[in-house]
């Protein structure tokens, strides 16, 4: 994926600030963390998936014609419902599947061979589980209150997480040596970003790390790509068109998440807010990822350029 240097630098700065704040700063109140998470997901996270109806048209249009919204909505909602049911009846298995699907999706933002992309694309998943296991288990239990086995599962998987950490350090060190030896500015910026992200996922609250990585890195990169695709000559105009086109679905998702937050807990700092955000996000993330995987296999253009956005 093509990434603009300013965006990578901004994401690196955000991650470094979060890491320093987690190490030196006081622990933020739960209400502030929940509010920051909700704001980041609503402002940056949701819009990058708010054009899924266009991807649905590119996938289902050739076979369903003018009726493409019907199979698109039915399949999208069916997958979302399956995710929600999974969190309720089989939270541990659902977490494993969700993390695996997310790792494959986040790998698209990284560079290099597939195994490197998956390892570092999933950094925000496995490193908090290793470095902040109690906090991670508590958050997962908030998301799926019946999932009392999360703490035991993390202990069982700890050797695997340690192995991933060792592999990541060795690959990062090799990449750093290569970048310095060949004076490769892009590669050097990449290893610095990964170091900042690793520090953030280790030192900052899990919610903060997720918000920065998901909204400040992954979603912002996707919005930038869509802006250029919508208007290559004037990306700022393209971004405005993308946000306007994504607004209906984004606002609907934000409204449903808000309703869910009050239904699950009410107060801003309560587990209900985190539960609603993560349940809502996972429910739309899985069909979003699968939809774009299908579009990619069919070489379909999910986001037509110009006035079609």
Number of strands: 0
* Structural class computed from helices and strand pairing: mainly alpha
- Count the DSSP helices: 13
Low-confidence stretches: none
Radius of gyration: 19 Å
Distance between the termini: 20 Å
The chain-level mean pLDDT equals 80
Number of domains: 1
How is the biggest beta sheet arranged?
A: none
Percent helix range:
over 70%
Give the H and E element order. HHHHHHHHHHHHH
Relative strand content: under 5%
Q: What characteristic shape results from the CA principal axes?
A: globular
Give an account of the 3D structure.
The chain has 309 residues and is mainly α. It has one domain. Helix content is 80%, strand content 0%. It contains 13 helices and no strands. The longest helix has 32 residues. The chain is globular. The mean pLDDT is 80.
